[in-house]
Each structure stands twice: as C-alpha cells, then as structure tokens.
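COURSE: Structural Biology Practicum
ASSIGNMENT: Worksheet 4, Part C
STUDENT ID: 0417
INSTRUCTIONS: Below are two proteins. For each, the amino acid sequence is given first, followed by its structure token string. Answer the questions at the end about the second protein only.

PROTEIN I
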Amino acid sequence: MSEPRSISRYCPIRRVGAGPAHHFFGYYNKHPWDCSGRYLLAQRVPMFSANLTGKEGAEVGFFDLEDNDRYYSIDETSAWNWQMGSQLQWLRGTADRQLIYNSRALAPEAGNPYPDFCSTVYSLETQTSRRLPLPVYVVAADSEWALCVDYSRFRVTHPTIGYVATRAEPALDNAPANDGIYRMDMESGDWKLILSLQELRNFQPRKSMDRAIHWVTHLEINPASTRFLFIHRWTERIEDETCFLHRLFSANPDGSDLRLLECTDHPLPQLAEDFDVDAVGTFDYEKSEYQISHPAWKNDHQIIVWGPHGGSIHYHLYDELTGEVEVIGADCLTENGHMTYSVDEKWILSDTYPDSVSNERLLILYDVENNRRYDIGSFYTDPSLGKPNRCDLHPRWHPDSCQVCIDSVHENLRQMYLVDVSQITT
C-alpha cells in the first residue's frame, strides 16, 4: 500500500445554500437525498454557533436541487443539536415522500418516558403533519418502527447530542429499569421498552459498572430491518470522556438475542483524585486507543466500527453471525472517523477529526478491493468552535455512490456541500 493519494482535483465540490442563514444536515449515517435525488434535507439556523439552551429554533426543510437549490421550510423545532440536528430523515419505506424529525412536546403526556420531546412526520405530497409520542434516534428502512432513547440523559453523558429540557432537567438514576432503548411503532405510535439500562448493566457485568452512570448511543438498524446495533457506555467520571468505557452489541428488533461483539473495559488511572481533567485535549477522546465509535452496517450481518480488538485499534469489521473480526485498511485507515460503506460495498467513505496543528479535516474514500485510500478533500475548521458547537464533516453517500454530502465551516459559514466522486467510484 502506497501513501494516500490526494485526488481532490477529480472531485468537484459545490455549496448548497447561501448566507446569511446557515444550513446543516447532521449525522453521517442517513441519506439526506430523497428517493429521486431531487430533494435534500437540511436544517436552517440564523447563527454560525451558539451554546444551545433549548429555546433556539431550527427550521426544518429541504433544498430543491432542480430549482436552483431553493429552500423550502416546513416547520421549526427546538429539539436539535449541532451534531445530529433534529434527527431529520426520510421515511424510505413509505409510498409517498415523508420525513421525520424531533420536536418539543406541547404538553407532557401521561406515562411518556420522555415528556419534553416527541417527533413529527411530514408528508410532502399532502403537506400534512402528525405527531408521534417519542423522539426518534433511527427509523428502520421499512419505516415500520423506530428506536428511541433519552435525549435528557445525553445532556449529562454526552452534551453535544442532548436536548435541553423544557422544564427542569429530570433526575437520572445510574442504570434504571425504566429507561434504555424503546421501540416505537411508526403507524400507531405505540411504544415499548425493549432493553433497559439495568438489563445491560446486569448482562455479563464488569466491576467498573457498579458505581457508573450508563447510557446507550450510536443505534443503527440493518438494511433488512431485522437487527440493530448500539454502543453501551458507562463511566464514573462523566466530565472526562477518556474515562468512558464501551461495549458494542447487536440485537433483534424486540431486544432479544443480545450479542456482545466487543468490550473495552480497562483500568482507568484518570479516576485518581489528582487527575487534571483540564489537561485533556478537545479531541483526545476520539483518538483514544480504547474508543469504540461510529459503528455502521456494511450489510445485514456485518458491522464496521472504529475500535480495539486483539490488542490494537483499527477500523474493524465484525460478523455478528460467525463472530469473526477483520481489520480494514490497517496501514492507511489509521484515525477515527465517520465511516459508511457504499451500497455496492466497494467503497468506504470517511473523514478525520481536525489535525491539532493545521485544524484541517480530511475527506476520505477507501477502495476496499485494492486497499487504497484516496484523500478527496481537506477542510479547515475554526478551533474556537470547541466541542459542543463543532462541525464534523459527517460524510453521507448518495444512494448511487456518485455523490457525497458533507457539512463544513471552511468558508466561515456552516453550510452543506455536494462532492462529485463519480470519476473515482464509477
């Protein structure tokens, strides 16, 4: 394997959306394009950055790429953050064009585990909306069910992806029996707790879990809607991400057949009383040798993730059926990133966190068959944004594998960009 090739000259890039407003999509694991490729989902906000209080509104809408990128605003929500937005996503399994996003509940609903938040489904064809009782994290490809988690718990454990409560922040037990992963029916809105945090703590428990707060994150559903994956995390020192411990799981849609794929429990010298939390760099956590992050399905039974296995940290490919684990791109994919496979499984799309000197983020394509990395772009990020307000590239595939969509701040605006990679991938 030779050094990564820089091929940005072969990959034209254009901005979608103009100032003074700022536009972004959010996370890396969802397609912003509709099935026709004409409409591109986006949130629009008036500010470049802000420490969110729960009162700031983000417009929810889409660009019409066949009408000079005209932006259509359909609603406003205050249930959003800079990393994931409002979990805006298409319902790909519906006959008409429908999208879903998280919203703030108008009034608490009796028995609702997350009374401050809900989700809204909007139909482009009928221009009508309907509310669902829980906020979503991810919706199955068949659009029949969604997985839902506690965004108030994120405010404590992972503030960059949490939502500020409408009223007082709820009191959180370390590993409650009444919180964890909920499954919600997309038609009826019926919901059920399928895996509690208490159950996860008690599943092959580790001593490090005893006094720790627990949560789940990075939930993903496979293309066939028959399995989902997630990361179980726990820590005694919530203010220091380098103290987070991780387990990677997969399960059936009802929470059964729980499979533990990886565990990074290890001694934590950072728990010493004299440890200097302020000495931890902004992105030290993402570059930790014990991190498990950004898992994504390659297909219905294989999962790619950045994490340690067998004493070394790499992009690893897990087969949840056989238990086999394979290193991907050992000599060229050497940094944590937001990775996804193309539909044909021939390419991996990813990025890097900012270089500590140049503050540049790289956009990467990896040729799976030939074990070759291509650097298709480099994008500056203002280090003063810090962690909660940062703008990761979060690269996302067009379904035809000929385009990539990213969020970026390299022009001193928070905007979305389309990168043409057809000369490389076709």
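PROTEIN II
(use this one for the questions)
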Amino acid sequence: MDSSHQKLVKTTCPIRQLGDGEYNHFFGYYNKSPWSQDGRYVLADRVPMMDADLRPDLSAEVGYFDTRNDDEFHVIGETTTWNWQMGCQLQWLAGKPGRQAIYNVRNDKPNGRYPSFGAVIHNVDSGENRFLPDPIYSVAPNSDYAITVDFSRLFITHETIGYCEPNDKTGQVPLCPSDDGLCRVNLDSGETSVLVSYQDLSQFYHRDSMNDAIHWISHIEINPASTRILFLHRWTRRVEDETCFLHRLMTINPDGSDMRLLEDSDHPLPQLEDNFDPNAVGTYDYEKSEYQISHPMWRDNKHIVVWGPHNNAIHYQLYHDAPDGEVNVISGDLLTENGHMSYSPVNTRWLLTDTYPDSETNIRKLLIYDAQKKLAHEIGEFYTSDLKKVSRCDLHPRWSHDGKQVCIDSVHEGVRQMYILDVRSVVES
C-alpha cells in the first residue's frame, strides 16, 4: 500500500435529530440497518431516562419513526430484555413479506432453550404478533433463520451486551458446556438447535489458556447470501477484567459444518497476577487493547472486515473466508483506532466507521473511508458525557439501504437520541 497518497478531509453533511426530545431514543448496534426496506420507517427503542442501571423490570418501548409523517413514533410493544449497547436486538425481517420486525422479550411461559427469554415477530401492516420461545441475536438476510446464544451467560461474561435475570446467576453457569453454544433458530417453526458447543470450540485448535476458563460467543454476523456465519469465540479466567479476554475469529456454515479459525489473539496475560487491580482498568482500555479482535462485519459473501491483530500488528484487516485465505490491512495510516465499521450496502468503495472517545476531549469521530481514493472523510465530531461502561452511548453508525444516509446514537446534546446524516455529498462525489 502506498500510504503517501492517503489523507483525511473534513466533509460537512446535513444532520437532524429523529423525533422530539421528550423521550430518549436509541437503536443499538452498528451491524444492522434500522430502516425498513422502503426507507420510510426507522426502528428505535424509547425510554424516559438517558442513563440507568439495568434491571429485570426496567422496561423500554419498542417502535419506529415514520420519516414521511413528521417522524411520528409508533409503539409496537415493550420489553424488559434490553441493554444500552444492543437494545433488544430489534431488526427487520427483510426476507419476509410486508413489514415485519423482530425483537427480544422476557418469557413468562418458559418453554425454550433459554427459559427466561424469547422473541416477538411483529407485523407492522396487520398489527399481529407471533411469539418465539427463544431470543435471537442476528437474523439471516433471507429471514429463514436466526442465530442466538445464552444472554444470561453474556450478562456474566460481557455485561454490556447481556440480559439480567431476577436472580443473580453469576458463577452458576458451566464454564464450557457440551450442550450449549452457537444456536440456530428456525424463524418459522421456532425450533432451536446447537450448531457448535462451547466444548467443541475449546477442542478446536485448543489453547492451554482455555483450561479452567469460562467461554462465550458474541458478535455473530451472517453474510448477505445467508450461507456463512462469523462469530467471536471468547474465553477468560478473570471475567471481571476485560483486558484478560482472549479472542478468536471464526466462521461456520448454517448447518454447523466447515468451521474455520481465521485469527487467534491468544497472548500473555500479566493481569492474572494476584497483585493486579482490575479496578485500575479505564472504561475504554479494553477497546483500545493491542490484542483485541472486535467488531467483525461481512464486506460481501467471502470477505470480513475486523479490527484486530495479524502478524503482530493491529489494524483494520480484511480477511478472505477461505482455508489459508489472505489477510490485508485497510488504510494503516488513516484508520488507526478501533471502531464500529460496515461497508455501504450498495458500493463497497465506502467504509463507514467511528472512534471511541478521545481521552482528553471526550470527542468521538464519525468517518467514511473511500477505498478507491485512499481518502477518509471526517463527517462529524460528537461529545460524549461521562457515562459508565455498561450505559455508555457509542455512535454505532448504520447505513440506510440506499447508502445515502447514516444513522447514529449520540448523547452530545445531553440526551440519548438518534440522528440521521445525509452523506450524499460524500458517496456521490
């Protein structure tokens, strides 16, 4: 790569807040679009407060903004299974007829694999609801199936993306079970099956650091053709300290076959010494670790962009999902910080991402990288207030389906709100 031709420019893009400020609104993660396929409705969670500790009885309204009717907000339900980072996994079922959305709820009639939680499919056109006995994490683009994991386990290992339960289950989940792991949910029948167990994962290219460690799965993404699943396999012996987390980037077929290991960040952990103080770890130290594998996303059906270490250097990397597939650095000189990245759904020339707050100014940056011109457009700077790690508000930028708009969550105006940026000045330049 010839880095001498790479540069950063500031590009102004029109921005507006969705809805009014009476409530706080957020969508959550960067990995799915909140827009309906026709671009009219934008999904959101709505709460009365900007910040709160998660509790099993803390309720959020679920609904959508109508962007063709003064951003009127329509409530379609409510849920107590949500968190500030990912919401309730609210997302559209783009492969189903009409407008159907799915989100997680608390299950008052336990009959699934994970008794505390389930999911609701809401038909916006008819107003009808259909209940699934298990929660969902990511939905396949064809809407035939979803992938899920135990959100109670996530609350123990990675509280920011898990769901709390009425009774404290910390320390009660098995470290590496053989009957649980990455699970597939049939969205028509509701049937759930295990694709690969935690025990199977620990035996696949086993590392000694996996012994006596608790294992979990996160960052599950399905490629556009719905034929391949990526995920992060993580494990640790010190769950209270994220800098002790170890990571592997994995892919697998939807039937559980052809599992591949693309990257392994197993490394020395001085934090495991008895004299280490986990309370000394800063809010964003984990995200800025030189070893972390994070925020993987499919560029297309065969390639994955991820922030992670490869050949002893951490960068934005592009992996070819194939045996002995190539790994290439993306803009080593411009994109130098961990962020939440995704390619434009209409043109992979454009890579959208953000940064974590600057340690002195608390400013986050919003960027679109032009892979053709080796040029990064800085399209916004957003101040973040001093929230706790669990309740922080990352920008989590998401594309509209036509690639002309970007939606973010932000607290730069003292409330938690969603904003839409018109990025045509960048992508149509």
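ANSWER KEY EXCERPT:
Q1: The chain has a mean pLDDT of 91.
Q2: The chain has one domain: 37-346.
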